[in-house]
Amino acid sequence: MSSNKTLDILHDENNKTVNKIQEKIIVLDFGGQYNQLIARRVRECDVYCEVRPYNISIEKIKEFNPKGIIFTGGPSSVYTEGAPMCDTKIFELGVPILGICYGSQLMAHMLGGKVGTADVSEYGKTYIDVDRESKLFSGLKFKDNVGNRTVCWMSHTDSIKEVPQGFKIVANSDNCPVAAMENEEKELYAIQYHPEVEHTEYGKDIIKNFLYSICGCKGQWKVESFVDNMVKDIREKVGDGKVLLALSGGVDSSVAAVLLSKAVGKQLTCIFVDHGLLRKDEGDEVEKVFTQLYKDLNFVRVNVQQRFYSKLAGVTEPETKRKIIGEEFIRVFEEEAKKIGKVDFLAQGTIYPDVIESGLGKAAVIKSHHNVGGLPDYVDFKEIIEPLRLLFKDEVRKVGLELGLPEFLVMRQPFPGPGLAIRIIGEVTEQKVHIVQDADAIYREEIDKAGIAGEINQYFAALTDMKSVGVMGDERSYDYAVALRAVTTTDFMTAEAVHLPWEVLDVVTNRIVNEVEHVNRVFYDCTGKPPATIELE
Ligand code: XMP
Question: CA 250 to CA 286: how far, in whole Å?
């Protein structure tokens, strides 16, 4: 048994690839809902950043050596007891700081300004007038290119009442006198609204201005250099050791597989457990990609469909299904790993949002039960290796494309670990799996044909536990009802049902009832999350 089975979640400061990066930004997390989005926007501007808890020590910040610091928003009021505060010495580091929303109020409060309840709370799209002389707003090409008025996304009940000494106001709205303030000499900037949100016009340009004009970044964070650096790091770490990876065929584990394979070739073994709950033909597709395109890795497909169906027989409770599948998965993985013998490293496709969500303590949003995969107890390994733990999903996809993975695999929508078992309400049977696979394949094909896949974040067919009376030809039928789901979401914590064109629903419905046996009715799920969830179980 390995002694090192807990994940050292915040070990990134020791990561060699991070150390090699010249331009780094720290995003200090004060608990706001858009914090990850801020970090993603910074990365989209080709600058590397990491999210750290608001109470990180000054020493750690110095060690990280950031070119700039961003304070995020957060739900607290700066003047209430116990409100999250950072170390005041942060303002003496000589590193540019951008405060956003709560972060802007915090900057005002900590530097001697006044913050209080806003006379009028603002929520949603709001007009502001900005000072174009400010480095934050310089060079913004307003649509009509006249005037200083632009639209931003506000969400606040407190506001800055008095700016600290040395600061000047550089934006205001009708109801918010200090929508932005700055102390150019000390390189301190604060904005009340949310530049990271798409509804803010020129939001990304403002972030870019902060990074490039104020912090002096040049945009060195590029996928190609990440790949080169990471491949070198992996080689150095693994030496001539053996690496084992559970490959699900999802985006993260597939990209991890090809990255590791580029680094250590035949020393990598990927175990692909086909539990019979995958989408139609998915098992064969994954096998084809990894055996034909990447001949340099050991790919082991384990066909254990029947084993899973029998474990799931008679089980109807969703969490019990999840538990059974999770446990059985690990058992299968262990059995296969034993056949390989001793391995040195267990690789995982952990990505940066998983790291943020599990590692930041009380300020962070913790996603519920998802992706909390157990680690196999009986696989003997020295260390866990997580080559994607620095990357956001869109970056993982870029790495995948860079490494030659086919687009259908890299751009895939998310698919839950327990697979179709949580898209079949009630008991899972082989017959129901085939019904939902066939219906889902038709649905996906038609969405693709309609050219709307890019506008939807997740869409799938599910099988209700309902049978109803229908008529087929002259015959009475008593068959299943399929439910179709399609949602848009940014973080999968909340979601909205997509207004699918009726023509698409019509074609899909006709095809499903005609082509899929045992289905005589199709429903469209119009519910958002909350109150529903994205999956049906
Ligand atoms: P819900 O249904 O909770 O789903 O709104 C949010 C996102 O999480 C995925 N999901 C899961 N992923 N194991 C997973 O790996 C699970 O048990 C699980 N349940 C839901 C779901 O597909 C959606 O993207």
Answer: 9
The type of residue at 21 is I
Among candidate residues 420, 409, 51, 41, the one with its CA nearest the CA of residue 256: 409
Phi and psi torsions of 113, nearest 5°: -85, -175
Per-residue tokens: 2: 């390995």
Q: What is the pLDDT of residues 377-431, one digit of tens each?
A: 666 788 889 999 999 999 999 999 999 999 999 999 999 999 999 999 999 999 9
| Ligand 1 probe mutation, 322, 535, 536, 537, most atoms within 8 A of CB | 535
Helix or strand or coil: residue 477? strand
Q: Which two tokens stand for residue 222?
A: 């590029």
CA dist 245 and 377 (Å) reads 15
Give the mean pLDDT of the chain: 91
Exactly one of 23, 50, 182, 196 is catalytic; name it.
196
| Atom 11 in ligand 1: residue holding the nearest Cα | 416
Active-site annotation holds for 194: yes
Q: Give 369's contacts (C-beta < 8 A, 6+ positions apart).
A: 319, 322
pTM here is 0.85
**Angle at the Cα of 33 from the Cα atoms of 201 and 411, rounded to 5 degrees:** 75
Q: What interhelical angle do 352-359 and 35-44 show, nearest 10?
A: 150
pLDDT tens-digit readout, 30-87? 998 888 899 999 999 999 999 999 999 999 999 999 999 999 999 999 999 999 999 9
What distance in Å separates the CA atoms of residue 422 and residue 108, rounded to the nearest whole number? 48
Q: Is 533 in the pocket of ligand 1 (CB under 6 A)?
A: yes
Contact between residue 206 and residue 191 where contact means Cβ atoms under 8 Å apart: yes
Rounded Cα distance between 277 and 283, Å, is: 10
Q: Is 184 noted as a catalytic residue in this protein? A: no
DSSP secondary structure, 439-468, as one string: HHHHHHHHHHHHT-GGG-SEEEEEEEEEEE
Q: Over pLDDT 90: what percentage of the chain?
A: 81
Phi, psi of 14 (to 5 degrees): -95, 0
Closest CA to 304 of 270, 272, 279, 346: 272
The count of other CB atoms within 10 Å of the CB of residue 61 is 20
Which residues make Cβ contacts (< 8 Å) with residue 280, sequence separation at least 6?
A: 437, 438, 440, 441
Distance CA 37, CA 353 (A): 10
| Ligand 1 neighbour 31 (Cβ under 6 A) | no
Lowest pLDDT segment from 2-11, 74-83, 148-157, 331-340 = 2-11
* Neighbour order of strands in the sheet with 243-246: 298-303, 268-274, 243-246, 345-347, 383-385
Ligand 1 atom index nearest CA of 368: 3
Beta-carbon contacts of 342 under 8 Å, excluding residues fewer than 6 positions away, are 242, 380
Residue 502, both tokens: 């009726």
